[in-house]
């Protein structure tokens, strides 16, 4: 149970740490209007906490945005545009201070898409086709669609083209100025591989639980080469 894990805090950010050498970073609550993914994610981490390797879990990257249930936090910032050196956002700064202590093999920041009712996911590296196709087949079995199109929410400069629920977005040093956690954590090598699943916020709690469970079973465990 995550409640029995070492519950820590730095400034206003609460987080959980399992073990001394976390290799997995789990995050949610970056955008406060995407709060609906936090509780189902906590339930699934509870389910797998014994089997997972050492990890850090930050349920609310921006606690003031989650409290307000808005994309921006109480400092009127989109936190995910404030991950860069000398940021003046206290929440981004604190999360950076936590993350920069580690070299994570893998990071997953759970977001919700409040606009589309189908699923998609960003990946910093191209996933093995067999693994990806197996995951997509299981998503479709839940009756959840796979989004194709342009997303300009997480990439202000160029809208990323998402195909069949998946897009590879390698980090680029010139994009650090965007302030997305993506580029900051990857370019600085705090995180080796990063995924941003975008869970449709319109899904029922039951389907959010199924979908997050699939992300652990079909992607996180195999990518970490851990047995379930
Ligand atoms: Zn988001």
From TrEMBL:
GO terms for molecular function: hydrolase activity, acting on ester bonds; metal ion binding. It comes from the Bacteria. Gene3D superfamilies: Zn peptidases (3.40.630.10). InterPro entries: AstE_AspA_cat (IPR055438). Its cofactor is Zn(2+). Residues 21-100 form the Succinylglutamate desuccinylase/Aspartoacylase catalytic domain. Keywords: Hydrolase, Metal-binding, Zinc. This is Succinylglutamate desuccinylase/Aspartoacylase catalytic domain-containing protein.
């Amino acid at each position: 149970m995550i409640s029995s894990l070492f519950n820590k805090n730095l400034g206003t950010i609460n987080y959980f740490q399992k073990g001394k050498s976390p290799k997995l970073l789990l995050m949610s609550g970056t955008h406060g209007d995407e709060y609906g993914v936090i509780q189902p994610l906590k339930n699934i981490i509870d389910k797998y906490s014994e089997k997972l390797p050492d990890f850090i879990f930050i349920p609310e990257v921006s606690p003031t945005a989650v409290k307000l249930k808005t994309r921006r936090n109480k400092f009127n910032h989109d936190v995910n545009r404030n991950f860069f050196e000398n940021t003046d956002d206290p929440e981004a700064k604190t999360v950076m201070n936590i993350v920069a202590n580690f070299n994570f093999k893998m990071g997953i920041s759970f977001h919700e898409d409040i606009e589309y009712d189908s699923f998609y996911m960003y990946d910093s590296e191209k996933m093995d086709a067999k693994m990806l196709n197996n995951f997509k087949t299981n998503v479709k079995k839940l009756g959840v669609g796979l989004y194709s199109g342009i997303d300009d929410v997480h990439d202000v400069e160029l809208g990323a083209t998402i195909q069949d629920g998946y897009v590879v977005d390698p980090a680029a040093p010139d994009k650090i100025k965007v302030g997305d956690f993506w580029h900051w954590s990857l370019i600085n090598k705090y995180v080796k591989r990063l995924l941003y699943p975008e869970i449709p916020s319109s899904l029922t709690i039951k389907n959010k639980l199924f979908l997050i469970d699939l992300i652990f079973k079909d992607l996180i465990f195999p990518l970490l080469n851990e047995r379930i």
